[in-house]
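Re: [help] complex structure
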Amino acid sequence: MNFIDLHGHHGAYVGFPMPRSSTPEMIREMDRHQIATLVLSPHRALIEPGSNGATAEILREASGRFLAYWVVHPHGEGRFEREIAAFEAARALGFVGFKFHSSLHQYPLDGPRFEPWWTYADAHRLLVLAHTWGGDTRCGLENCRRVAEKWPNVRFVLGHSGYHEHEAFARLAGAHEHLYLDTCAVGCLDGAIEAMVRIAGSEKVVFGTDLPWFDPGYLMGAVKYSGIREEDRMNILRENAEKILAPLR
Amino acid sequence: MNFFDADFLVGDGPKPSRFPTGTVGEVLAQMDHFGIQRSLFRSAAHAWSIPDGNRLAASFAPGEARLVPAWFLVPHHAGEFPSPEELPGAMKRAGVGALVCDPALPFSTRRTFCGDLFAVCEERRIPILMPAPDYPGYEKCDQVLCEFPKLTLVALNGHSWGLARYTWPLLERFPSFHLALGPCRVSGEVQETVKRFGARRLCFSTGAPR
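Output below.
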């Protein structure tokens, strides 16, 4: 069991029933697909500001199988000052960085309210996962480019690899040392994984499933049938994430 | 393990594809790559003409046991489709395995328009595949099944996310309702559906090469 998934969630969701969204069910799915570690942001933390504390309980329940992102909400004055101490206090439980969801929170990834969070992540070389989407003016290519240029020490994973614009995002990732693409959702697009590897190199692609949204097998199949070399597959499924997480655990 | 793909598109469509399926050889090569033994296919020509698409589907791969053509169903009254009396024989002669009834096409699936065709399909157990690219597609399935509850209706799922709120009531109420999974990808959904309704109610479908 040795794969690493850097893009997951947790818990029930309003849109539709998720049969594998509890901690024991998710761990069973991980076991079934040989995923050793999942880095997640629970749905509750994404929706409800100030609820990252509840993620700590999930980390305890998972006994080391989960790591977590601290979800950064843009709205509300003084949020950074209020929350960063709580983040630091909780880091040892398994928080490895921040999650930004500019589409859900309707606030640009490179907006001024996020600046202290990026600056902190840069100073501490944290892992950051951001939802990115082609054509979205809050988390599109130019937003990501500005962030990558301004805070080059962040280990920045472009969630969904700018879905629909993965080739342009791959060129961006290829040009910045700490910028990574992920397979989440975009891996289902015909030829996307092959194109990302060709443009950015397999060292710049990490495995992400959105579990419990996706059955991990769906994206593992996409990696398996993408036509890339075995060495590239292993970079995506394990090696790259291991290197990213090693200094953060 | 041999796979049977319940939804494969052949012929050149308006959008270029990385996997061409314009010839029998190209289609079989695509199927071989993914370990698919047999496919029920529809013709891309249906996008511009139902009669031409049906004719091309029937003549695409005659005698090739791995490829089973499907016809698109439209009301027969305008002469575009065999009458209910002619349909079973015409399908048998052309080797057609199923019919596709696409609610997105400009015709009504209500009894006045398609009732006689549905009635013969119900009686002869001719499978009807109904594309359900989104949640309202399942309401269409429900509407048809409420009028023809013994019709063998297979929803061709095209939606990525959770289906249970829509498909489980249909599976529960109509024993002849089946689901072709398509891009159904939510963790655990297939397993839970099989647990409740059995694997015989589900089909594997790719929608390839889309």
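The first strand of chain B starts at residue 3 and ends at 10.
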